[in-house]
Amino acid sequence: MNNPVIIIGAGLSGLRAASLLTEQGIKCRVLEARDRIGGRVLSTSVPNRPDLGRFDLGPTWFWPQYESHMANLVKELNLETFEQYKEGEILIERFQIKPPERCVLKENSDEKWVRLTGGVQSLIDALVETIPSEIVELETRVKKIQLNEAGDITVEAEHSDGKIEKIPAEAVILALPPRLVAHHIEFSPSLPPNLMTEIVKKPTWMAGQAKVVAVYDRPFWREVGLSGYVLSAVGPLEEIYDASPINGPGALFGFFGMPAEAREKMGQDKILNLVADQLVKLFGSEAKNAKAILYKDWSSDTETTVKEDLSPLKNYQSYGQPPVEGVWEKKLIFAGTETNSQYSGHLEGALQSAEQAVFKIINLNI
């Protein structure tokens, strides 16, 4: 190959593709619009308290008994894992004016929900260590991809200083949500109408969601026989789980039931006050003593979400590989969790799609 393979997006899928290509001796560059790696993987610390650990505001779990690519990569990178805490009773909140009910949840004892010590970001950090540092370029936004009559590809990217770089490429791996491709990248010649229709139909996983983590000095709910798992018909959080690290502080994280537009209208301060009130109602007065409440609304993240994603998630059946045909065939390869039909929305899906993309590159004989 004379020119590099250009990978757009430095999330799990893009970084895995870069690692595999590097392993094969194939030149590549990873162009990322954000100022950080990880994409929708986001593990963050309490401001001024890194000693409390990192907490996931993006994906949290994987299931090694089903997800072999994740399990194998975690083992290969020598990462520490632990099982999600599920001992004790769950709380069910049915009514605003009544206290929650405690009950025992019968779990499938063979099913392991596994978390990474240090958060999922530890996987991203370990993966990027397998790639030469100059390969990943942050704050580099791809604006246009051109294909001439001779079959040569040029990727036009804008750097943070406003400079435009035109990069010759052998092929392009689109390792970002398909709807972002449709909205933010210009193609010349234009993508076929059926391909554009297909990628616009694919909802971006997590794009309409928000996640909150309340961090405490210890997981006090365990002391009274609670697992930290809550199902609520009241809200604002409709599902809550124990997010504590394996040692040290305690944490609870939750998903919101209210739609993105309602959250935007209400504003972050009011939302977090409602969250704090709900946690006190569920877990008692000790829940007032949060060290911090961490919040990420993915629906307001323009590097994740487009306007079509603000509606509730639908069209699961549209997940899978888009049909790239005509002049763009063998030039454009989609990767990312939305392009894997079996494990869409999972870390496993992001990994499998990256491996499939690299397999295609190797077999292009370019």
From TrEMBL:
InterPro entries: Amino_oxidase, FAD/NAD-bd_sf, Flavin_MAO. One of its GO terms (molecular function) is oxidoreductase activity. Residues 109-358 form the Amine oxidase domain. Pfam families: Amino_oxidase, NAD_binding_8. The lineage of its organism: Bacteria, Bacillati, Bacillota, Bacilli, Bacillales. It comes from Neobacillus bataviensis LMG 21833. This is Amine oxidase. Belongs to the flavin monoamine oxidase family.
